[in-house]
Amino acid sequence: MSKKKAKKEKLSFYLRMHRRFAGFVRWLFRIRVHGVENLPEGGCILCSNHIDYPDALVLAASVPREIRFLAKRELFRVPLIGGMLKKGDAIAVSRDSADVSAIRTVVEKAKGGDAVAIYPQGHRRKGKNPWDTEIKPGIAMMAYRSGVPVVPVCIQLKKQKYAPFRVTNLYIGEPILYPFPSEAPGKRVYEDATKTYFRAVCALGGYLPPALPEGETPCDK
């Protein structure tokens, strides 16, 4: 077996799909990536706003490394889609409850050097300013337990809606290492950390209020 052929066979399903379709996705959505140099090489958690179904495709096509996505458990039972999620090593999560198994998997993947994408909003928020949406603190718990930085990512669209051939801006901010206390943090600490992460996401896309009161963060309203 030639070295070239052996190398090709070592590529994961995700990377094979990325090579085949990332260029098309970037062309279809006219993606402009800003701040790709901020991506760390090791384990990290990508904290992104959640607009609509194409978010995962846009993020995957924009980032030049393999990403582990969280996907609601029901999707794994859908023909074809479920098979692709499994082959792509996506992480199944139950969105309406504290999914301990999913949390452990995220922590394990991040500690092992993977990039894991998480949407703190939990659900799609098509047409809404991300600053005005509710966020969940689970991402902070996972960041604390894995010890990896959180990278803010903002998908910016006109009127927060996708359309073919309309420019899609994707901003990648500098990694954030939140100063967690040495002892196990409580709910309030996780909430504050998540607000810090998501404020950075909103700032990247220009979604913060024109005159933000000092110290105010998402969900303080």
Number of DSSP helical runs: 7
How much of the sequence lies in strands comes to 15-25%
* Helical coverage, percent range: 25-40%
Radius of gyration: 17 Å
What does it look like?
The protein has a seven-stranded mixed sheet with strand order 1-7-6-2-5-3-4, with helices on both faces. Helices cover 35% and strands 15% of the residues. The model has no long low-confidence stretch (mean pLDDT 89). Strand 3, helix 4 and strand 4 form a beta-alpha-beta unit. The protein contains seven helices and seven strands; from the N terminus they run ααββαβαβαβαββα. Helix 6 packs across helix 7. The protein is α/β, with parallel strands linked by helices and 221 residues long. It starts with a helix and ends in a 16-residue tail after the last helix.
Attribute tags:
221 residues, 7 strands, 15% strand, alpha/beta, seven-stranded mixed β-sheet
Write the layout of secondary structure elements.
Blueprint: H1 3-9, H2 13-28, E1 31-34, E2 44-48, H3 55-62, E3 67-72, H4 81-87, E4 91-93, H5 100-111, E5 115-118, H6 138-146, E6 150-156, E7 168-172, H7 187-205
Parallel strand pairs: 1-7, 2-5, 2-6, 3-4, 3-5
Antiparallel strand pairs: 6-7
Helix pairs in contact: 2-3, 5-6, 6-7
Short description:
By secondary structure, the protein is of the alpha/beta class. It has 7 helices and 7 strands. β3, α4 and β4 form a beta-alpha-beta unit.
